[in-house]
Batch of 2 targets.
Target 1
Amino acid sequence: MVSNDSAGHLIILPQLREVLLTVVVVFVFTSLLLIVSGAPPLEAYYHLFLGSLSSWVKFTHVVKVWIPLTLCACGLLFTFRIGLWNIGVEGQVMIGSMFTTWALRAGVDSPDMGPVFIVLSLAASALGGALWAAVAGFLKTKGGVNEIFAGLGLNFVAQGIVLWLIFGPWKQPGVASMSGTETFPTALWLNAPALLRIPPVALALVVAALVATGLMLRYTRIGLDLKAVGRNPSAAFLYGLKPSRLMVLAMLFGGGFAGFAGNLQVTAVYHRLIPAISSNYGYLALLVVMLANFNIWLVAPVAFFFACLNVGSIQLPMMLQLDSSLGGVIQGALVLATLGMHGWRRIKLTQA
Amino acid sequence: MTEFDVSIIIAGVIAGAAPIVLAAIGETITEKAGLINLSLDGSILLAAMASFVVALKADSLLAGFVAGALVGAAVAAAVAVFSIFLRQNQVAVGFVLTLMTRDLAYFLGNPYSRLQGPQTALAPIPGLDQIPFLGPVLFNHPLPVYFSVVLIGICCWYVYQTSPGLKLRAVGENPQAAYARGINPWKVQLLYAVCGGLLVGLSGATFSLCTKPGWGRPQGAEGTGWIALALVIFGGWHPLKAAVGAYLFAFLQLMGIYFQGWLPTVPAQVFQVAPFPLMIFTLLVMSMAQNESVRRWAAQRGRATALLRFLSGMAPAALGRPFRPD
């Protein structure tokens, strides 16, 4: 997105100005909202900060949100690269969690084999997420069904399947409830050292995902092909690329990463399958990637900021009697203002 | 089942489907003009919150409905302006607004949660409500429910029988040609985005002031926007068929209570999912119907032909592809 004219270094400055302007606009908007709700804005921002970054424990909560968000965002970079709107990440996370639970259930009776089943569950989750994404991919390429509506529909179907499992075949002994399936024995948890509080496996996974995504999109044939089809499908076809196969491939990657996110939601966070297992991270990841302007270097910091907002706003109901959805409002306002700024820049460019 | 039961069920379906019909028809109008307003699920909630709060504070139901309609129109206008004038991806903008307006509704509505507010009363139509069976089924509802039923007819007539309706369809099918004939596609799209948004807003108002009175988190309108979007497709972009889909869905929801008795292991939420596989299936059939060999195959089989014909709708040709005069 950086234009390569002779005065390349000058382009950075207006972009920085745009970012600053976006932040100011969102800051004013949120502050007005807070004033309307009768809350002191600065105090609310302070509580957002306190709730997310004021202690190591809170920081680890943020990281636990950051990890699945970043994983989903990595997957989305593949699908956006080829021009697909993979709105089905949410469902792919849920199916990933479902496959994880399925694999771990097999290990409940053999606690000493815990690590084996966790590895199996990781493979199963990637497979599940990728399969679910492939359904949307094939509906698009073979069935002519728009990937947005297919993905959206499949999200709700995935939610239905998860609910049915929780209330039916996988219900807790005794009575089924919205609190989810029975909690797994600790042998099947992704364990974290007492001081770190974050499973190193999860951290390794997300770092590996970021590196792999960056390298694949930048340096491999697949990355180049995805980009070629995304920019100009008909030209890519004439050049001998197969857009539909590449689309399904991109969906497989997207779904696989989302599946990993679903796995960690079970193995590292909830230790069981709950109805809201995806925590909306799939939808939120779409906002992350849009705000990061599809740039992998920005995905991790933007996801981290979003995670801070998510975790920090949990404090608001207790401290200021505000609804915790303020975090979501700020996230949405940021993306909307950025989109508006992009549009404004284009208008100015065409007028100039 | 006695006749009495049937009339209660049908009356319940007509009343329960009212907000869904409003939203589905609103979105149909907008999409007929070629614009997708994806923000429905959030804008319905924001409108529901606004109408409840305004109706409560002003102690006026009318003010509440007006406020809801205006909120729906404002969100739709935002989608249109971002798409048409700022040239941003309308799906992206709609999606962001879906999440943002939902959170905004919860945030701003928080102080008004679980308050007792005004709600629309039944307005039986004198004389007609005494007709056996038909009276209680059709003529003993609150005003928004009558409106939702009448709107179906108005919308069909407007879109298919009037000159502005023809312009609306022309812009959705071929904006270049419409432009060449002296119609400004941008104005038309903005206009019908706002019109559709007004109805989407009324859908939200109908939720919080009539169907599920009150405000809270969750309100009960959650998910309706996505269902309405699915119904537009299921209805093949025809207002009448979209409305039929809404009634079918309301019927399924009502029957969910009975299903629960037969299949106690299946939670009610699973039935909520039903429109979505149907939507995918509809899209699949529509796309396959374009295929010559599929049509030849179906020609031999009466049922397949009937299915193809029933689901034969076509998306407006320029749906989601903004007009650029170059």
Note: Chain A touches chain B through 53 residues (CB under 8 Å).
Target 2
Amino acid sequence: MSETFTKSMARNIYFGGSVFFFLVFLALTYHTEQTFPERTNASQMTEAVVRGKLVWEQNNCIGCHTLLGEGAYFAPELGNVFVRRGEDAGFKPFLQAWMKIQPLGVPGRRAMPQFHLSDQEVDDIAEFLKWTSKINTNKWPPNKEG
Amino acid sequence: MNIANPHLKFASQAVAKPYFVFALILFLGQVLFGLIMGLQYVVGDFLFPLIPFNVARMVHTNLLIVWLLFGFMGAAYYLIPEEADRELHSPLLAKILFWVFAAAGVLTILGYLFVPYAGLAKMTGNDLLPTMGREFLEQPTITKMGIVVVALGFLYNIGMTLLKGRKTTISLVMMTGLIGLAVFFLFSFYNPENLARDKYYWWFVVHLWVEGVWELIMGAMLAFVLVKITGVDREVVEKWLYVIIAMALITGIIGTGHHFFWIGAPEVWLWVGSIFSALEPVPFFAMVLFAFSMVSKRRRQHPNRAATLWAKGTTVTAFFGAGVWGFLHTLAPVNYYTHGSQLTAAHGHLAFYGAYAMIVMTLISYAMPRLRGIGEANDERSQTMEVWGFWLMTLSMVLITLFLTAAGVMQVMLQRLPTDGTALSFMTTVDQLQVFFWLRLAAGVGFFIGLGCYLFSFKRRGQDVLVGVAAASA
């Protein structure tokens, strides 16, 4: 690098640039916070949704699945599983049945453990996934398959 | 025998050694679990239900994080005294924290392996302050608290050393990066009930670590090794370092936005995240220029050619893994189709290996011969073995990345691009990708062999021992 560009100039760009953009980041975070209640339908976050999130977390579901595209990439996306599996009419019965028959025991197929969840816990997860499917995700995923 | 190591400037730098050794043991564990998962990708019920995929993945990623943290800490204990030109504030504290951190790490991994996760959550009182069950932050809350305690003790120790000693740019940048690492980790205790908000702040740990403050740590470690092996004027090196970290933070902080496209955050991030993260390759490219121009301007031919190779290699691999492979899917219109596909996995592997695994191995390569009392460099045969390890691991990781990229492109074509009705389901899609996953597994075996060569290069042969004894008695 040329001699006219000195170390102290580089240092000033580092300090000034990082402080400035960190402040911009905070401003954008403030803006994001303002939009969350509406974009996530926070008013519909029932106690069941909150309990369901905890069941989701305490069984490490993210270790295989993705949720809104984040997680492991070993098992299907569940952010829109409510839409994929029956919506209001069919999703809860589907999930109850699905959780009970795991593992499927098909040789060579990726296997999901049996988590021994109570009916209440499965219902809570269902409520959590239903609420999740209604978050405004800028239209992601592109189709029902997630 | 209690002979001071003549190859260390300060005796207290020796505390770095157990950190490096333990880091490499954990690295070996990480790769073994990677192989288990690679096999589970093609034989879905392999080791089921003994080690379900979610457990193997948790062990694989957590071991990665922990071994890199051990590597960073070892690097700090080695370079901070040398830069500050004084002994470490408290070598005893560094030794105690080593055992605390190692014990906490081992217990946590054993917990993952032998207790069902829900049971682990119950045992450790996750209900009281729920922080578990989020990707990479799966550690029980009590382990997270332990990490904070270790980090505070560690920062106190190197901070005191720095305060009392010479303050160089390299040590200040290293310190800033490590403080940032600890500060952003605190967000792991914030787990809002609203999933979108949870995900938003989760990235304050994950992104602001790997595409933020960790780049400061990487830059400082790289600069330190380059000063040592090239003998280039410190002023020049430090100017480069400032340019690199300036670019890293200017692009990387707002670049966090590329994770906010589809998780419930507002549309503004589609633009802001795309633009800033598209510039994130710049600091990595600057690191390539930095390493190669310092080596070409070197004032001495350092006998440790392996360390020179690692220093150059980490910048190039990080540029491709973090820079190019990140850029490939960082623009929102592209990411709409690739988000959470095998392309993400491809990028993650080459980026972490290139930037962080390799920078730790760069420092280990430079420092370990001295820490072991061998001298500036290992003998030729050991270095040749190390260079074999470098190439086998690096090329294998490039292949893993290419196979996962191919799998990801195909996944997008089968599962994401078609409309409802014609798109294949996830499970049908992965069946179509089997051949790529088999090839990836083969490349993983290649990586394991490379790691074997690398670890074997540390084997001390009879001749070395004699040289060591001769040096010690001279």
Note: The domain at 11-221+324-473 of chain B is CATH 1.20.210.10 (Cytochrome C Oxidase; Chain A).
